From TrEMBL:
SMART domains, per database record: SH2, SH3, TyrKc
Organism of this sequence: Channa striata
Keywords: ATP-binding, Cytoplasm, Kinase, Lipoprotein, Myristate, Nucleotide-binding, Palmitate, Phosphoprotein, SH2 domain, SH3 domain, Transferase, Tyrosine-protein kinase
Domain Protein kinase span(s) in chain numbering: 307-560
Protein name stated in the entry: Tyrosine-protein kinase
Record-annotated SH2 domain positions: 185-282
Length: 573
């Protein structure tokens, strides 16, 4: 065995040995304790005050080369009205304001003052923005602002120094003037795999690059560059940018720079030991907004007439999905539920929790219409469901590396749900949505338990997804995060077979009987044995013997990179 393979095997075994210790509780459990920290982060990181996910109690660390994962003896419960806001870096309890991907700003680089304060740093627009309501302010990239009020979380009241207009702007569309956050090449808190995904998307050439925060070293950065050669084709190389005690930066000690901007200028002029010189910054997609507007941030039950249904995207047993607009300005997806599908009161209660679940790999819930017929308003995903994408769309031609990457994205979203002590209950490719650049996001989390259809709730009828459901959940109604892990194993078969129905040739009754007797699906055609072994782990009879989603994410993200160095040393560096 290659020595690096053995290192990864040992570390994965460490995670596997610990995975059964994580405790889970239903989000509605009355004994749930309030979480002790709101300073959560979207990726596991080392912090002096917080562990992964921002929680500081009982963490066990497992290190793996250039990234860390943590398994917790005890995660905080989820039966509270507030949960950590993973996309909001504006906390009233901090000294100064941590913004722009978690970079802490000083009084000279973005600390916001209250209305009427002096010495307020100017901000610059990173993108164009069209106002969605009369309270918003339209602006263009490069426009400069004075921030008047930053107490509304993700929405700031600002005055444009270009137009003189005043209104609310999304805080993740701006950055302090002359800061690194204002640079086109700076991507802030972007994980290694997401950096590779963006750099390898269509249209990027060799020399496309970005700089991001280091996942492992506080205060350091990583330079990620798209490269090409005859053997690998397009691929990404990563270089550590280290910080000097004096405040400068370097990749090699022989070339030191006072600022990151100077470092970029140097390597843009010459490769100087890198795989190639820096040609052009990677294109930044538009930031995701977690609310439709500042008005719907707290009051997000909206009038039905504010929605315009434009194109039906699909229909199912319990309703339809439409592409539409809100307020005539904002493209959204609208799920319309047939009357009687679920109690409006129960739905609104669950939606209060769903609205606060915020992660890049979860479809963001924007708003609801809770009177029947119930409308669920979410972000719009351009490629539709993963099932349709694999069977009839662009996904038919995808190769194994893309399919494994999509599985890793789903595992990342489910790892967040796992950390939040939440349960999906209906994890399958039909409930995964696909966007541009093969981005995958989990939809419909938590809704399955609200369905009141008799044929569904009996867990025997044609409407119930027996073939995706763990036996303890199908037979006894015991839904846990571990039954979601079983479903994830089935979803893996959907990916490698391009949307084939699981257990081909068997009906629901036969599936239940055979699975109870120990039958498990064989390795699909052209599926690597190591990936099938992962599926079988997900289908362990004892739920506690199944992997955690944290482990599944780590395994899949490193599936093709276990034999390669995490960071390039650089030629002649």
């Amino acid at each position: 065995m290659h020595p690096r393979h053995s290192q990864y095997a040992r570390r994965r075994q460490e995670l596997r040995n610990r995975q059964g210790r994580v405790s889970y509780r239903c989000c509605s459990c009355p004994s749930a304790k309030e979480s002790r920290c709101q300073g959560a982060e979207t990726r596991p990181r080392v912090s002096s005050s917080h562990g992964p996910s921002g929680f500081s109690d009982g963490l066990i660390w497992a290190f793996c080369e250039s990234r860390e994962w943590a398994v917790s003896n005890h995660y905080p419960s989820f039966g509270v009205t507030t949960i950590p806001n993973y996309n909001n870096f504006h906390s009233a309890t901090t000294q100064g304001v941590t913004v722009f991907g978690g970079v802490h700003t000083s009084s000279q680089s973005g600390t916001l003052r209250s209305r009427g304060g002096t010495g307020v740093t100017l901000f610059v627009a990173l993108y164009d923005y069209e106002a969605r309501t009369e309270d918003d302010l339209s602006f263009r990239k490069g426009e400069r602002f004075q921030i008047l009020n930053s107490t509304e979380g993700d929405w700031w009241e600002a005055r444009s120094l270009t137009t003189g207009g005043t209104g609310y702007i999304p805080s993740n569309y701006v950055a302090p003037v002359d800061s690194i956050q204002a640079e086109d090449w700076y991507f802030g808190k972007l994980g290694r795999k997401d950096a590779e995904r963006q750099l390898l998307s269509n249209g990027n050439a060799r020399g496309t690059f970005l700089i991001r925060e280091s996942e492992t070293t506080k205060g350091a950065y990583s330079l990620s560059i798209q490269d090409w050669d005859d053997i690998k084709g397009d691929h990404v190389k990563h270089y550590k940018i280290r910080k000097l005690d004096s405040g400068g930066y370097y990749i090699t000690t022989r070339a030191q720079f006072e600022t990151l901007q100077q470092l970029v200028q140097h390597y843009s002029a010459r490769a100087a030991g890198l795989c190639c010189r820096l040609i052009v910054p990677c294109h930044k997609g538009m930031p995701r907004l977690t609310d439709l507007s500042v008005k719907t941030k707290d009051v997000w039950e909206i009038p039905r007439e504010s929605l315009q249904l434009i194109k039906r995207l699909g229909n199912g047993q319990f309703g339809e999905v439409w592409m539409g607009t809100w307020n005539g300005t904002t493209k959204v997806a609208v799920k319309t539920l047939k009357p009687g599908t679920m109690s409006p009161e129960s739905f609104l209660e669950e939606a209060q929790i769903m609205k606060k679940l915020r992660h890049d790999k979860l479809v963001q819930l924007y708003a609801v219409v809770s009177e029947e017929p119930i409308y669920i308003v979410t972000e719009y995903m351009s490629k539709g469901s993963l099932l349709d994408f694999l069977k009839d769309g662009e996904g038919r031609g995808l190769k194994l590396p893309n399919l494994v990457d999509m599985a890793a994205q789903v595992a990342a979203g489910m790892a967040y749900i796992e950390r939040m002590n939440y349960i999906h209950r209906d994890l399958r490719s039909a409930n995964i949505l696909v966007g541009d650049s093969l981005v995958c996001k989990i939809a419909d989390f938590g809704l399955a338990r609200l369905i009141e259809d008799n044929e569904y709730t009996a867990r025997q009828g044609a409407k119930f997804p027996i073939k995706w459901t763990a036996p303890e959940a199908a037979l006894y109604g015991k839904f846990t995060i571990k039954s979601d892990v079983w479903s994830f194993g089935i979803l893996l078969t959907e990916l490698v077979t391009k949307g084939r129905v699981p257990y081909p040739g068997m009906n629901n009754r036969e599936v239940l009987e055979q699975v109870e007797r120990g039958y498990r699906m064989p390795c699909p055609q052209d599926c690597p044995s190591s990936l099938h072994e992962l599926m079988v782990q997900c289908w362990k009879k004892d739920p506690e013997e199944r992997p955690t989603f944290e482990y599944l994410q780590a395994f899949l993200e490193d599936y093709f990179t276990a034999t390669e160095p995490q960071y390039q040393p650089g030629d002649n560096l």
